[in-house]
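sorry to bug you again but im stuck and you know this stuff better than me. theres a chain ive been looking at and ive put its sequence and its fold in token form underneath. id like you to explain what the token line says about the fold, in plain words if possible. anything you notice is useful, everything is just below.
___
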Amino acid sequence: MIKKEAQNIFKHKGLTTEIQRMWNVKTEVISLTVGSTRAITKPFRSYLNNTPEKHVVKELQKTATMDTAHILRKVIM
């Protein structure tokens, strides 16, 4: 999970730089990686606190699990 989180942050670094140049604002990449087994990384809750909207961790985990099940059903059938 930690490796995947680092990959997501690295992957979006170029987008962050582009947004900073275009809009002259400070940006930060927040990786909200939720595993299919409802696993989350340690800084996950602090990342959520940095977002303007309020989210419930259990709801995000449920959504990730349901979406994973949906993808698996499509692939299997």
